[in-house]
Amino acid sequence: MFARLRPRPQPQALFTTLNRRTLVYIKDGSLHARGMKKDPSEYMTSSTGITYPGDSTTIKPIKDLLGQNYSIPDSLALQVLTHKSFAHGKKPFNERLANLGRQFLRVQTTEYAVSQKSSQPTAIAGNNFDIDTKALELMSSTAVLAQICKQIGINKSIFWKNPNTNQSPERSGENTVCAKTVDALVGAVLMYHGESKAAEFVRQHFLEGENSVLTLMNQLYKRN
């Protein structure tokens, strides 16, 4: 007989709900309203202090290392330098390049190590097939590749967000990001120039010379 009456919303409850959901505390103690657009400078500036996409000096360490023989487009070089933690993943990042380069670099490192001449009784046709498994792992480890990244100056140009700036490179994730950037660089050369040229690049820059993984491996073994 009488229409069912719907209860009216309680203003106080509504106010409380909105109040809880719209204001968000950030780590630095500042208060932000959820849903509001952030200043691009907040997330487009890397932990290294460079605002994306940087300038000509940003990709210079990569261009200098690659030279004319292994050069890649600037856009690809920028992707190599961009970690997935940067800008909420809205810019092309290096994850897939790193996965590709990591596998290729490990294969090239193993082949190179095995091909070294050995006089050990376990050698086959004079080749070093008895190389220690730990040594193989260390040659392409995070510690070694991170050191290479720093020696050639690429680490200063990486776009990433470091959530733990007060911690060591090992604990903050900096070394992992640096190592992944080296893997991504190898992946970019492989994708752009092909397997033969990429193998030549790896041998010239990471297996021989001042950035040799063999040299750095020996240094790490002595340190430990």
From TrEMBL:
InterPro entries hit by this protein: Ribosomal_mL57 (IPR040030), RNase_III_dom (IPR000999), RNase_III_sf (IPR036389)
GO terms of molecular function: ribonuclease III activity; structural constituent of ribosome
Any one Gene Ontology BP term: mitochondrial translation
SUPFAM superfamilies given in the database record: RNase III domain-like (SSF69065)
Source superkingdom: Eukaryota
RNase III domain ranges (all copies): 75-215
Annotated signal peptide: none
CC annotations in GO: mitochondrial large ribosomal subunit
One Pfam family hit: Ribonucleas_3_3
PANTHER family named in the record: 54S RIBOSOMAL PROTEIN L15, MITOCHONDRIAL, LARGE RIBOSOMAL SUBUNIT PROTEIN ML57
Protein name, per record: RNase III domain-containing protein
Annotated source species: Trichomonascus ciferrii
